[in-house]
Amino acid sequence: MESTSSSMPKSRVSVRAPFNSAGNHHPFLVLFFFIFLLITNISTTTCTPQISYAQHCDYVVPESAPTEQLLDSATYGAKFLHIGNGYFTGGESILGETPKFDDSSSSFAMFRHGALYRTQTEGVIKVQGNLYFRGPRVITPLGNITHRRLLRFRINQPRFPIRRSSATFVLYGFWSSDSGKLCMVGSGWSQPKQGNSRLFNVVFKLNFANKSSIIHSLVRGTLESVDTEDSFSYFKPVSILGISQNGYEYTLIDREIESGFFSEYSSDEDASLGLDLGERLSICSFGRPAGEFELEYGSDCDTVNCNPLGRTPGLLPKFMYFSQIECQYGGKVHMMLRFSNSSSNLFQTFIPDWTLVAEGAWNKKKNQLYVVACRILNVANSLADAFGVDCSIKLNLRFRATISIKNRSTIVGQIWSNRTVNDSGYFSRIVFQDTGNAPFDLPGLKYEYTETDKVSKACAKKKGVKHRGKVYPDEHSLDMRFDMSVKDSKGQVGWGHALPIFVGDKFVGAALYGKFRTGSPRLGGFQAQVSTSHNSLVNVSYKLSFTSSPSFKLMGKSSPSGSVEISAEGIYDKETGILCMVGCRHLQSNKPSTKNDSLDCEILVNAQFAPLNAGGRRVKGTIESTREKSDELYFQRLELSSNSIYLSQAAESIWRMDLEITLVLISNTFACVFVGLQLFHVKRHPEVLPLISVVMLIVLTLGHMIPLLLNFEALFVANRNRQNVFLGSGGWLEVNEVIVRVVTMVAFLLQFRLLQLSWSSRSNDGSENGLWASEKKVLYSSLPLYIGGALIAWFVYQSKSSYQIPSPRTRLAPVNYNQQHSLWGGLKSYAGLILDGFLLPQIIFNLFFNPEEKALASPFYIGTTVVRLLPHAYDLYRAHSSTWKFDLSYIYANHRMDLYSTAWDVIIPCGGVLFAVLIYLQQRFGGRCILPKRFRDSSVYEKVPVVTNDQL
Length: 952
Known about the structure:
The protein is an alpha+beta fold.
C-alpha cells in the first residue's frame, strides 16, 4: 500500500540545513527517518479495518480479483481519478464545524488515487487512494484591497500554521471504465479544532468518466457511513462536487466560432498582438501570470441584469480569475472562470455558484482568444443533480499592442450573453482588463508617451546641478524601484512601492517583478547595458501604489479603500538623479467599477535619487496636485521618502555581515580559549582560586548567559532573523547564528565552571571570612556605580522620548530601528558597558584584600579585554568606511548590545586598557600599589611575646 504521505496535499515547507545535501548524513538522522517512515506505514496499514467491499459496493462495481501487475496512471491520463479543491456539503459531524466556501475561507475536499492494479475483469481496475477534507482557515488580508490595479502586498504565513479541522480517509475499491463509476471502502480519522479525534468507517462512491468535456466535466460523489445511526461514528452523507479535466475533448468552441456568435463584439478598433502558437503553453504562459481581471459594468445595470452568474441584479462580482488552465497545441485552452468580490485571491477553492466552466481557441486572424462558458446549474437543490448546460456565455480576450498612462492593462476583453434581454440567463455586456499586478513582457508591446508636452512644461524648472564625482542609478537598473513612505499634511503615513514599467521603449516591469517571458532579457542584461546616448534625459513610465490608514486624507477626505494608485510618466535625468513625472490617479467608487470611473491626471510627481555612494535616505520627493485649491479634486502636497538601499549598498552590507559573522565566531572562540587558559592556570595554582573576585566572574557569566536567553529559540527553531527580511539573505545567516550561539554556550559553561571553582574554594579556605568581607565591600562599592549608570541610561531615555515626535503607525508601517529609543534597548547597551569594564570588581577586590599572588592569568585578562574592545575599534572603522548605516544589520559591534559612537569608541577602549594595566600592576607589586603610600599599609597589630614574672 502506498504511503499516505505521498498523497497528502502539498504544503509549503521551509527546510534549512548548513550542509550540502550531497555530503555525509548523520547516522542518527537516517535512523530516525527510517523509524518515522516505518511507524507511518504501520499506522496507515492498521487504520484500514476489514470492511466488506461486497456488502457495500458490489452492486456498483462488482469485486474482481486483482493481478500483481501495477498500472501506470499515465495510461488513463494525468488527471485520472483526481479531484482538487472540490466542493462539498455536509460533513459537520466529521470536521466538527460547518464548512465555508468564500473569499476568506479554504474548505475543500480532495481525492487522489494511489496504486492501480489490473483485475481479472476487463475494464475494471483496483484502486487505492486517499480522500481529504479540510475545514475553513480564515486569513484576513491587510486592508480592503479592492481597488483598480493596486499592487498587492505579499503576506507571509505564520511559522506555526493556524490549526484547522481536517479528516483523512484511506480507501480501496474498484473502478469500471464502462460505467465510469468508482466505489471504495475504508476508514479514517478526523482532527477537529476542538475535541478528540474520531474514527469513521466509510464507503465512497464517485462518478468519474474516462473522458470529459465542457458539458460533462462535473464529477459527483458521496461519502457515507457504514455504521448504524445509533453509533458514535455515524454521520450523514457528504456530497462532493469537483471538476474533471481528464481526457478533455473540445465539443463547443469550434461550433460556436463557425456560427459567428463572436463576430458581434470582435472589433479591430485597436491593434492587437499575436501569439506564436508553435508551443503548447504559449497561451498559458501569458494567461496564468495575468490571472486576475477587474470587471467594468455598463451604465444600464440599474434596469437590466449585469450579473454573469445569473443572479438577481445588485450583487455584482468585481473580479474574475482564470483557474486550472490547461492548454493544447493549436491554441486551444480549457479552464474555469472564477468570480469574486475580493482581489486578495488567497484561495482557489471551487465554488459552483461563482464558477463557470469554459473552453476556448485562439483566432490567428483576429489575434483574439474566443471562449465559450457554461454555468453550473441546480447546485442549490442537490450536488448529485448539478449539471452545466447553460453555455450561452461568450468571452473574447486580446493583447494590446500599445499601452499608455491612461490605459495600462495589457490584456483586455469582454463577456456577454447571446440570449435576448427577456431571457432568464441574459446579462449586459461586461468589459474586463487585467489589474496590472503581474506585468509581463509581450513580444511587440510598446508604450506611448502621451503627456510629453505637459511633462516638458512641468519639469522645465526641475533641472538639477551636475556634481562631479557623483554617480546616480542607471535607468535600467533595479535601483530605480524603491519602497516608499508617503506622509500627508497631518502627519498620517502610507506605505507602498514605486515601480518602473517602461524605460524609453524597453519594458522592464517583468524583470522588476521577478517574472520573465521565455527568451526575454533579464534585468541583469539591462544592468550591464551602457547607454550610448549623450542625452542624460530618458523617458520613463512608473506605477506608484501605496496603502494608508483610514485617517489618511486626499481631497480633504479619507480614501474609500485606504489605497491609492498613480500611473505616471515623465523624464529621468541620470546625471542629477532627478525624476519628474505627471501622473493619473484612478478615482475610486464604492460600487463595482463602471465606465463612469474617471481619472485625475493633474498630478505632479518629483523625486530626487541620492548618489550611489551617499548615505541617508535613498529617495526624497513630493506628490502634489496642480489643480486650483477650489477644485474638489485638489489635495495638499504629499511628502514621499524611501529608506531602502541600492544594490551596491546591499552587496556591501551582505559582504560586511558575512565578515561580521566570522568576527563574532572568532571572538567567541577566543573567549573560550582565554577562559580555558584561566582554568588551566588555577589548576596549576589552586591557591589563587579564592583570590578571584566572585562579582567579576558573575558579570562575565551573565555576559554570556543573557544573549543565550534572549536568543534561545535560535538553537532549536529556525527563527528568521530580521536581517533576512530587509536584505534577503535567506537562511545562511540563521545557520551561522546557531553556530554563534553554540560557541557562546561553550564559553558560558567554561565561565560558569570557573565561577563554581572559585566559589567552592572559598568554603575550603582558612581565610574565608576575610575573603567574603572583601567581596562584600566590592559589591557595596560597585553596585552603586552600576545602579547610578542605569539611572543615567533611564534619564537619557526619558529625554530622548520627550523630544521625539510621535509618528502615526499603521499596520503596514515598517519599523525604523535607527530611530527607535526604548528603555530596554538602553539597558541592554548599558549592560554591554558593564561587561566592557569587567575588571573593575577585581581591581576593587585587590584594593581591599591586597593579595600578593597572581590570581588572573595574563592571557585571560589581557585577551578578554582585547575581545571586548576590538568591536569598538571595528565600529570606528565601519562608521568611516561604510556609505550606508543600518543598525539592524550589524552583527559584530551590535549597537543594541553595547554603547557605540565616536566618543564611546574612544572612551571605552581607553578605560579597558587602563583597567588591564592596573591589574598588571596589582599582580606585580601588590593590590594597593596603585594607591598613595599613606593608604597602602593598613593598621595592623604586631604580635609581641608575653613576658612572665619568672623571666623578670
